[in-house]
Amino acid sequence: MRNHMVQLRHEKGSMLIEAIVAISVFMIGFGSVLTLNAQALHIVPQISKRLIASELAQEGVEIVRNHITTNAIRGNPFNFGLSDGSYSVFSDISEGPMVGVSCGATCPTALFLPSSGLGNYTTNSSGKPTPFRRVVVTNTTKPHEVQVNSIVTWDDSIPSMTGCAASRGNCINVEDHLFDWQ
Q1: What is the rounded distance in angstroms from the CA atom of residue 136 to the CA atom of residue 174?
Q2: CB of 141 closer than 8 Å to CB of 105
Q3: What residues have CB less than 8 Å from 10, skipping those under 6 apart?
Q4: pTM score of the predicted model
Q5: 57 with 152: CB under 8 angstroms?
C-alpha cells in the first residue's frame, strides 16, 4: 500500500510538470504568432508606399516616352525639348502628360487628385499632398538615344540626380533607354 501511495504522489507531480510544459509550449507559440502579426502590421504601410512609388516612377518614364512620341508625330527631332537635366513631370486629367521645367532636387512633391478616381498624381495645386517626390533625369549625350531615370523618393528623402544612394531606402529608380526609331 505504501508503494501505491508513493506512486500516486509521483503521478500527481508528473502531471503538474506536464501541464506546465504544455502551457509553456502554447504560450511560446501564441507569442510567436503575435510577434509575426505585429511585424506584418508594421510592414504593410512600407510595402504600400513602395508600390505607389514604383508606379509613379514608371509613369515618369512613360511621360517622357509620350513626349518623344509626340515629337515624332509632329515631325520634330525625337529628343526635341529634352536636354540633359532633371525635370518635374506630371500627368493629370486637364493637361495630360507634361514634362515640366528643369528643377533639380527642388522638384515639387507629387499631389494626389482623389476626385479623378483614377489614382492621378500631379504637381498642380489642386491635389492632396503626398509623401512622394519624383525627379526624372534625362541624358541625351548619345546621338540617337535618351537615357531616362525616373527617381521617386518618399518620407522626406530628397531625390538625387545620381539615384537612390542617400535616400535611407525610401527610393525607387526606374531606368529606360529610348531610341530614335524613325
Answers
A1: 9
A2: no
A3: none
A4: 0.68
A5: yes
